[in-house]
């Protein structure tokens, strides 16, 4: 997988570099800067991050015994997640460069006027989607009935909760009274005698 990614990026970079040498005079300063930045980022990714990842893979496979910090599969997965973000960024940059090349090394900019996006270089218009209609409002009679039903339901719920609270308080009082009665019953009984056998 890594080899395929590297070869794909390197081939695109080589193609863009050769195009840069041939067409540099046709490019504006800004376009040339974008091309050079994309090439530089791609080269750094291939020469540093991907090589570092490959080294970690080999280190994981070799698995030196007694190594203080062995490279785990989780380490590799985390590192690849980080590198794959950069790979996607490079791919997007290279796609942008290819679009610039297809457009004669001119920026493709969007100009918005009167609700219509117009591509400046091609002149083709593109309509914005129509706004979605809002939901119709509920009738007032139905909403009043719903609120009245809701009020009665809330009142019934409050009554039920209040009754449960009262029942729980009564149960707690009964348990407390029962525990006190048991405690006072134990205290009023005669003391318990303990017999210890005498040693002969």
From TrEMBL:
It comes from Cherax quadricarinatus (Australian red claw crayfish). Belongs to the SAPAP family. Residues 110-200 are annotated as: Disordered. One of its GO terms (biological process) is signaling. This is Uncharacterized protein. Residues 143-181 have a biased composition (Basic and acidic residues). InterPro entries: SAPAP. GO terms for cellular component: glutamatergic synapse; postsynaptic specialization. GO terms for molecular function: molecular adaptor activity.
């Amino acid at each position: 997988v890594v080899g395929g990614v590297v070869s794909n990026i390197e081939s695109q970079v080589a193609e863009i570099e050769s195009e840069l040498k041939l067409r540099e005079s046709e490019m504006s300063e800004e376009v040339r800067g974008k091309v050079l930045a994309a090439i530089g980022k791609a080269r750094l990714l291939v020469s540093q991050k991907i090589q570092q990842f490959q080294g970690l893979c080999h280190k994981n496979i070799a698995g030196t015994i007694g190594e203080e910090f062995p490279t785990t599969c989780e380490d590799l997965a985390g590192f690849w997640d980080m590198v794959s973000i950069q790979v996607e960024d490079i791919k997007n940059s290279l796609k942008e460069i290819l679009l610039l090349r297809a457009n004669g090394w001119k920026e493709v900019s969007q100009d918005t006027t009167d609700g219509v996006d117009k591509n400046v270089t091609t002149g083709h218009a593109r309509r914005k989607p129509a706004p979605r209609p809002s939901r119709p409002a509920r009738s007032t009679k139905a909403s009043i009935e719903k609120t009245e039903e809701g009020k009665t339901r809330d009142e019934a719920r409050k009554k039920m909760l209040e009754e449960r609270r009262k029942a729980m308080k009564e149960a707690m009082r009964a348990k407390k009274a029962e525990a006190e009665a048991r405690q006072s019953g134990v205290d009023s009984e005669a003391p318990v005698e303990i017999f210890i056998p005498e040693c002969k």
